[in-house]
Amino acid sequence: MTRYCVIGAGPAGLATLKTMLDEGHDVDCFEKSDAIGGHWNHDYDALHLITSRDVTGYEGFPMPQEYPLFPHRDHMLDYFHRFADAFDLKGRITFNTAVESVVPLPTDGPIGSAGWRVTTSDGAVRDYDGVLVANGHLWDPKIPDIPGEFTGTQVHSGSYRNTGDIDGKRVLVIGSGNSGCDLAVDAAQQHFDTHIVIRRGHFFQPKTFFGRPRSELAFLTEFTPEEQDLIARLMMRLKVGTHDDYPGMPEPDHGTLAEGPPIVNDLLLYWIQHGRITVRPGIERFDGHTVHFADGTSDEFDTILWATGFHASLPFLDESLLQRRDGIPLRVGAAVVPLDLEKLYLIGMIGARGPQPPIYPIQAQIAAKMIAMHESSAGGFRPLAGPLTSSQEHEWRIDILRHIWLEQVDRTHDALRLLSHVPA
Ligand SMILES: Cc1cc2nc3c(=O)[nH]c(=O)nc-3n(C[C@H](O)[C@H](O)[C@H](O)COP(=O)(O)OP(=O)(O)OC[C@H]3O[C@@H](n4cnc5c(N)ncnc54)[C@H](O)[C@@H]3O)c2cc1C
Ligand SMILES: NC(=O)c1ccc[n+]([C@@H]2O[C@H](COP(=O)([O-])OP(=O)(O)OC[C@H]3O[C@@H](n4cnc5c(N)ncnc54)[C@H](OP(=O)(O)O)[C@@H]3O)[C@@H](O)[C@H]2O)c1
Asked: I want to staple 307 with a disulfide (CB 3.0 to 4.6 A). Which of 2, 97, 175, 396 is the partner?
């Protein structure tokens, strides 16, 4: 009898578990915490989605209409509980049990072709015909190496909860991704003397145009992605102006939304113009409570909030099995398949722009299709990761345009269809 392992019961793990159960598989799902929902259990209190209610749910399981247009963190968590309850998933999950190692079973064939041995924190060792990894990629804090030492309070966005975590009055937020913008706004709204390091300019996109979420403007769908990018920039120009309208804001070093990171925040720019947030350039060094900036200025701060992102970590896998570029594991098969590793599937190791939950069932379906192809082959294996690795571009990005990732999905289904005709 074949048996599969799902690691994690966050949004990606839940979608994967449901897909695997729907396909009739015998599945063990291990969750290291005591709850479903992943990081939505402990994100900061001020967190609201940047994607809107009506597009962020899994396909076929919309978010309730009583949620606001941009749901709060707690709505998101409530939604995942509703999903887990609707499909009776919680009883299928082993909570408080971390997967500690995932090792390929010995074989003369390709790595993973004989399956994987999984060791969990309760000491149990089990062999599986396939492992579906959904451990998230936004939990291992990335803190850059900056000369000197800062001796004030330091908190990373992944563990920041609210302004109660801030000591003193002067706070420096380092990083201007969506976390950095949210944290700076949170501090400014509570009257902290708030500064934010923005070392390169972005287009800060508003959440709505004409009162509607950007992704729900029907007229935009008539245009190509490139035309949509141009129209959105024109509308932004009308609504927020340019970097010159915000003191200290660097000019974007790119010309289109597609080329820069997708930062969606109205309030950062609002509070900059109200003098409650000061924009600072990159940091040169620390000295006690003093921060020296690249423009030669320096200031004292009580607290630093690091909003410098996360490492994409797979701590239960031997790193020598993975190939990375810029710290990200290289993948094929719409980012599901780590290079040349058979029967190991990554669900959620991608951030195709737009809502994330709809991505996970699509990736889980690709894994399920590959699993079905293995199961229908003599000996329970046919080369799939190998042929995909040699025929597809090796994806190094997490942030990728949605239409490009969807093309990868189509190409992967086509490739698997062709491979299914090759004798195993
Ligand atoms: C602050 C923030 C705001 C966001 N806002 C949006 C938004 O507006 N719209 C949107 O669509 N997306 C948003 N996202 C993206 C978000 O990451 C995804 O929507 C989603 O939560 C990722 O789900 P996941 O299951 O991959 O990861 P997680 O939510 O991280 O879940 C992973 C789960 O795996 C478990 N786990 C990890 N390691 C192990 C192990 N070794 N053994 C067992 N269990 C393990 C963890 O305990 C956790 O429960 C946001 C992300 C962040 C951080
Ligand atoms: N409200 C929401 O929905 C919401 C909120 C938070 C996060 N998210 C999502 O969660 C994911 C992670 O976002 P994130 O903001 O935590 O991480 P992120 O997108 O990786 O952003 C990290 C930021 O840190 C900056 N940085 C890195 N090293 C630096 C250094 N040495 N000095 C100064 N700045 C430095 C980067 O600047 P450079 O660009 O210059 O490298 C970047 O602005 C994203 O997908 C995001 O959309 C969503």
From this structure: 175
Mutate to test the pocket of ligand 2, among 51, 186, 308 (most ligand atoms within 8 A of CB): 308
Residue spans of the domains in the chain: they are 4-139+310-419, 143-306
pLDDT band at 371 (very low <50, low <70, confident <90, very high): very high
Q: What is the pLDDT of residues 90-132, one digit of tens each?
A: 999 999 999 999 999 999 999 999 999 999 999 999 999 999 9
The two domains 4-139+310-419 and 143-306 share their CATH topology (first three levels equal): yes
Query: What's the gap in Å between 416 CA and the centre of ligand 1?
Result: 28
Q: Indicate which ligand has the atom closest to the C-alpha of 143.
A: 2
Measured in Å, residue 334 CA sits from the centre of ligand 1 at: 19
Q: How far, in Å, is the centroid of ligand 1 from the Cα of 30?
A: 15
Residue 423 burial (10 A CB sphere; 0-12, 13-18, 19+) = exposed
Give the CATH superfamily of 4-139+310-419: FAD/NAD(P)-binding domain (3.50.50.60)
Is the C-beta atom of 327 inside 6 A of ligand 2? no
* CB of 49 shorter than 6 A to ligand 2: yes
d(CA 201, CA 176): 9
Query: Model's pTM, two decimal places?
Result: 0.98
Beta bridge partners of 150: 288
Per-residue pLDDT tens over the stretch 213-226: 988 999 999 999 99
**H or E segment and range at residue 189:** helix 178-189
CATH number of the 143-306 domain: 3.50.50.60
